[in-house]
Design goal:
heterotrimer; A: 269 residues; mainly alpha; B: 181 residues; two-stranded antiparallel ribbon
Chain lengths: 269, 181, 181
């Protein structure tokens, strides 16, 4: 066997050289497999008896000598040489090599893609984009439900908001109504309004409102107080009293513009 | 791939009572064959220990057995269309609510909704003390639906909203649209 | 009234994939008990001759078996052309996805696809926080009609790689035919 193999090796070397030269002169790109295939066909190598290390060594050496830079070709040739070896070992183990092997086909695909940047993706469970969406078979035409509990709660929340808004609007309307009714005050009402007791009640009421509002705001617009339920005149009178007692300052940037109430510095309300 | 199974698949997908003829058209078989297979299927369902059954009263349908209806009710609290639901929401929020006030808030169609809600046992309608107008209230059954599914969080949230100042709520409403329905 | 049947009733009514915990809350039982009964139920379904099965891939759900898919498709057709389906797949794989990113991945025709998918209620399109770009997401209806298969994470990653190397899916689209359905 030894001499046989040796002989074949020398043949192989010769064959390789010949084929690589052919490859070089040939305009057509030739795959490594074709080189091996041709060699096997012409009997220059025995596909069932390849010394893979020797073949590749010599092959690589030749490529370097030829300054061939087609690494892809080299890679392929190496791969197919390995594949031949695999076939050989399969035969030795009694495996039928002519049976289709799906895993091998997949392996081939991966190899041919090896120059692509594939990072570390495990392709085993990857399917194509066309297959990724599967139609569910749990859909039903007429499900009994029209409304779920969640939707019911949502509706309630929604009406809660609407309700709040309406309430706020009504409040504003009411205060507007009060303001308008001021025009209809009788002389008696006006005298009553000027009464000390009435004024003191208004002042303490406004003071309380302001205390609350100053907790969150440092500058309060006059209208905010009016929304609290008192008419504009009473509020204004009360504010004048508070200002004169140095509890607050009244600020207006321009005549006829909005009137603001701020806390008197060094003083709490 | 038996005809019986094809019929079963069709019944499952349709989800409402259908006639033998309708099934026959879907599974492309003769009505006589379909009927015989349907009976077989019906027997299968009734003989096995299952929560499902095939009802054949007004057409054929796969449905949950009466014994397990509580689960259905839990998951499907009420079969109410959105406008009726909205009316119910208003009643729940403002109860006790005068029928006339509801009409103001929801329009004249609210009367139909009241009838439906009364029929489903979700609200009551009673004359007020003076006997002049109807007062609407939700029932314990309504409250039950709310407690179910352990959705107490949502309920607590609603109650909290009640307490909070109106300012923030109104503001939110301006920015986010209502996505229900 | 067995726990197994209660679970079956719940699955039938829910009609979408649910977790053991969700079922446990509905049937008021311990998750461990529910899981064991679910397995039992799954076996029951798979061992009998039925068009229905319990799927446990992404949560538990009662569904029609693959062999009877044609009946589902016939009764509830999803009429989306392959390119639109592909756009939908990309959105599902990468959601939330910027509209601009989708355009990079699927080309300018994706805009027409978005319109169609929005109209069918399978995706939503909302402005992002800055209000500068649109964000695409799938809807609950999408989940009702479709499920994702395979290693979706890896596929999403590959989509990105494809984008980087400018080897877009659009290129592949020209060469390979659509194999779905």
């Amino acid at each position: 066997m030894d001499s046989n193999v040796l002989k074949k090796r020398s043949d192989l070397e010769f064959g390789l050289e010949e084929n690589i030269n052919t490859f070089q002169t040939d305009d057509k790109a030739v795959d490594g497999i074709e080189i091996l295939f041709e060699m096997a066909k012409s009997g220059k190598i025995d596909p069932w008896n390849i010394d893979i290390a020797d073949v590749t060594d010599k092959y690589l050496q030749k490529l370097v000598e030829l300054k061939a830079n087609n690494l892809k070709l080299t890679g392929r040739t190496l791969f197919f040489a390995a594949l031949l070896l695999r076939l050989k070992s399969d035969v030795l183990e009694g495996i039928n090599v002519f049976e289709e092997k799906p895993e091998e086909a997949q392996f081939l695909d991966e190899i041919s893609d090896f120059e692509e940047d594939s990072e570390s993706i495990n392709y085993n469970n990857v399917i194509s984009l066309d297959e990724v969406l599967e139609r569910r078979t749990s859909v039903r035409l007429y499900k009994n439900r029209v409304v779920t509990l969640e939707e019911l709660v949502k509706q309630l929340e929604f009406y809660e908001k609407i309700d709040r808004r309406l309430a706020l609007r009504n409040k504003q309307k009411k205060s507007v109504g009060k303001y308008r009714s001021y025009e209809n005050f009788t002389p008696e009402d006006i005298i009553n309004m000027a009464h000390d007791e009435y004024i003191e009640t208004s002042v303490s009421k406004i003071q309380q409102s302001l205390e609350k509002l100053f907790e969150t705001d440092s500058k309060i617009e006059l209208n905010e107080l009016i929304d609290a339920g008192m008419d504009k005149v009473s509020v204004y009178i009360a504010l004048l009293f508070l200002a004169s007692r140095s509890r607050i300052d009244l600020v207006q940037d321009e005549f006829y513009s909005d009137l603001y109430i701020v806390q008197e510095i060094n003083n709490t309300v | 791939m038996t005809l019986k199974c094809r019929i079963e698949a069709a019944l499952f997908v349709i989800g409402k009572a259908v006639t033998v003829e309708e099934i026959a058209e879907i599974v492309k078989a003769k009505p006589e064959e379909v009927e015989s297979e349907l009976l077989d299927l019906l027997m299968d369902y009734s003989s096995r220990e299952s929560a499902l059954e095939i009802d054949d009263e007004n057409g054929y349908i796969i449905q949950v057995r009466e014994e397990y209806k509580d689960i259905v009710e839990k998951l499907i609290p009420v079969e109410l269309k959105p406008p009726v639901l909205r009316t119910l929401s208003v009643i729940a929020l403002k109860e006790p609510l005068r029928q006339s006030s509801l009409k103001e808030l929801r329009g004249a169609t609210a009367y139909d909704h009241i009838a439906e809600l009364l029929e489903k046992g979700l609200i009551t309608r009673k004359k007020d003390k003076n006997g002049r107008s109807f007062i609407l209230k939700t029932t314990p059954k309504f409250a039950e639906y709310f407690k179910l599914k352990g959705d107490t969080k949502a309920l607590a949230k609603i109650l909290d909203l009640n307490k909070k100042t109106s300012k923030t709520i109104v503001e939110n409403e301006e920015t986010e649209g209502f996505s229900g329905e």
